[in-house]
Amino acid sequence: MKIAILGCGSIGGAVAVGLSRCGVFRTSDITVTAGHASSLDRFAGLGFRASLNNAEAAREADIVMISVRSRVVKQVVEEIRDALDYSRQIIVSMAAEYPSEELLSLFRRPDGSVPQVVKVIPNTAIEARQSMTFLAPVNADKEHLEQVRAVFDKAGKTLLVEEKMLGAGTTLASCGIGYAMAYVKAASEGGKRLGFTAEDAVRIVAQTVQGAVSLLEMRDFRPEEEIDKVATPGGLTEKGLKAMEESGFTDAVIRGLTASAI
Predict the structure, then answer these.
(1) 189: left (phi > 0), else alpha (psi -120 to 50), else beta?
(2) Do residues 140 and 117 make contact, with C-beta atoms less than 8 angstroms apart?
(3) Sheet holding 49-51, edge to edge
(4) CA angle 158, 217, 228 (to 5 degrees)
(5) For 92-130, what is each residue's pLDDT tens digit?
(6) What is the end-to-end Cα distance of the chain in Å, rounded?
(7) Integer Rg of the chain from CA
(8) Annotated domain spans of the chain
(9) What pTM was computed for the model?
(10) What is the CATH class of 170-259?
């Protein structure tokens, strides 16, 4: 399978690297594009095919992934539309905010034909093959949707949702990477105050978060139960959690998520 990723910014680049690490796709089967040659140097050095020509990159691909800002989507579609074979190629749009109907309209040819289109929202953890990726079919049938899902299943976990839920997914998972890192940063600062070096503090917090995730996966995703196990009455954890809540911890998290909701 050949994949073209049009736009190698933070998400497109992470997708390329993550897929290349899953043991299924060769870097030579993944083409990445950019508007400037300097943006492609890293990827060419890693063995990816790199191109400044979106139409050329898209022509040979089985799956064409559009990973550019919403304001550039129209330009990219107009560049690649005539180079595509709608009978065999699948379009993946990673432009979460771009309206689906408008996207299909851009692809529609004079004979009324449009390609199979799926909206996909991964997060930057896909580079480490740990993305929480959301998929919503725009007009794709089950067969083509499953083909796309199989690709992203190789680089984390996927969830099929209605398109109206993609904004919420972006907030919780894509923005969530930043929020999780903010917790790691804050907890690491606390570790430094407790006497650890900055480097050790980050490692301790990162391993603790990884351990917490592993416990959730083992225990059917019930965080309340895991909290109860360590927060014994009058114990250190209970005191810490109480202090956090007095400072508005839960409310701050919810307000942050709400503020970033699309």
Answers:
(1) alpha
(2) yes
(3) 49-51, 30-33, 3-6, 63-66, 90-93, 116-121, 131-137, 156-160
(4) 135
(5) 999 988 999 999 999 999 999 999 999 999 999 999 999
(6) 33
(7) 21
(8) 3-161, 170-259
(9) 0.92
(10) mainly alpha
